[in-house]
C-alpha cells in the first residue's frame, strides 16, 4: 500500500464505522426523538477521532493475526 494510502485508509474506514455505529447506538438508546440528528452528529464528531486512533492501533495487529491464522490454516490444509 502506498504511504499516502496507508494514512488515508484508516481515517476513512474509521469515518464509515463511526458513522454507522453512532447512528445505530443513538437509535437504540433514544429511538428517534426530535433532536436525534443533533445527538447522532455529536456522537459521530466525538467517535470519529477515537475510531481513527483505534484503527491505527488495530490494523497492524489485525494484519499480523490474519497472517498467523492463514499460515496455520494452510499448514492444516484448510
The multimeric state of the shown protein is: single chain
Outline type: elongated
Distance between the termini: 27 Å
Order of helices and strands: HH
- Given as residue ranges, the uncertain stretches (5+ residues, pLDDT < 50) are none
What is the averaged pLDDT score? 94
Task: Provide the helix percentage.
Answer: over 70%
Radius of gyration: 17 Å
Number of helical elements: 2
Main sheet, how many strands, which sense, barrel? none
Structural class: mainly alpha
Write the topology of this structure.
Layout: H1 3-30, H2 36-75
Helix pairs in contact: 1-2
Summarize the structure.
With 78 residues, the protein is mainly alpha-helical.
Would you write up a description of this structure?
The protein has 78 residues and is mainly alpha-helical. The protein has two helices and no strands. The model has no long low-confidence stretch (mean pLDDT 94).
List keywords for this structure.
78 residues; 0% strand; single chain; mainly alpha
